[in-house]
Amino acid sequence: MRTALVTGVSRRSSIGFAVARRLLDRGDRVVVQSWAPHDAGQPWGPDDLDAVLAELGDPPHLSVDLADPTAPARLVASARDAVGPLTSLVAAHARSAAGRLADVTTAEVDLCFAVNARGSLLLTQAFAAQYQPAAGPGAVVLFTSGQHRGPMASELPYAISKGAIQAMTLSLADELIERDVTVNCLNPGPTDTGWADPTQTDLVQRSMPRGRWNTPAEAAAVVAWLTGPDARSVTGQTIDAEGGFRR
Questions:
Q1: Contact at 8 Å (CB) between 85 and 3?
Q2: pLDDT above 70: percentage of residues in the chain
Q3: d(Cα 151, Cα 207) in Å, to the nearest integer?
Q4: DSSP labels for the chain?
Q5: 85 near 46, Cβ under 8 Å?
Q6: CB environment 147-159: b (16+ within 10 A), e (fewer)
Q7: Less packed terminus of the chain by CB within 10 Å, N or C?
């Protein structure tokens, strides 16, 4: 049986939630992570965490701040205790931060790197350390946001930290492929997770050939493929699942 840790499962509209639901529906044993205080400080606000977990069937859940450098190892160890050796890691968490060049602060850049880039790296390190081939083929799915496809000058702290995730993917994949662990990075394109204001929503919608934003469920479908048996030859790749987004 596949076992998975999915981070970033704090809102029902999130990609992390959709991924957890998709993996649970196919029979995986899933542990989910959230950090609601981040959402509380964003324009979209927090969700009802009890309701989030209830809709998933109350899987094992850990509230962990990935800005803490010790958090990734503790999170993976706790997840392993809950469901056994992990075969999949889906790092769908993210710290969001707006700011153009003149607005950049050291504190925000450091925090974005800590949560997004360092957090993803240390989660992968901890996952690899506990991975047992006898448990089944391993898979790591990281997330970027399209910074390699086009500029995001109004979200610099976020953009450069997510860009680092895309840049590390190939090296991590090379490190782990001999242990039968694939590592890939998903760029889900503009995804309707409730973060955009009406002006942004309209602008992006007009740039999408299908006339709508991508959905979290569509991103989750790609994750299910990358962590399933049909994608074992795919590693070190950045999957641009943008729905034809025209920048």
A1: yes
A2: 100
A3: 15
A4: --EEEEE----TTSHHHHHHHHHHHTT-EEEEEE-HHHHHTSTT----HHHHHHHTT---EEE--TTSTTHHHHHHHHHHHHHSS--EEEE-------B-GGG--HHHHHHHIIIIIIHHHHHHHHHHHH--GGG--EEEEEE--STTTS--TTBHHHHHHHHHHHHHHHHHHHHHGGGTEEEEEEE--SB-SS---HHHHHHHHHTSTTSS-B-HHHHHHHHHHHTSGGGTT--S-EEE--TT---
A5: no
A6: bebeebeebbbbb
A7: C
- Closest among 198, 202, 208 to 244, alpha carbons compared: 208
Task: Please give the structure tokens belonging to residue 106.
Answer: 């050291």
What crossing angle do the helices spanning 119-130 and 71-83 adopt, rounded to 10°?
40
| pLDDT at 40 exceeding the cut of 90 | no
pLDDT category at 42 given cuts 50, 70, 90 is: confident
Backbone phi, then psi, for 184, in 5-degree steps?
-135, 165
* Interatomic CA distance for residues 113 and 108, integer angstroms: 9
Q: Is the distance from CB of 31 to CB of 6 less than 8 angstroms?
A: yes
The predicted model scores a pTM of 0.96
Q: Which residue shows structure tokens 């998709």? A: 22
Local confidence band at 200 (pLDDT 50, 70, 90 cut-offs) = confident
Report the chain's C-alpha Rg in angstroms: 17
Tokens describing residue 222: 């790609």
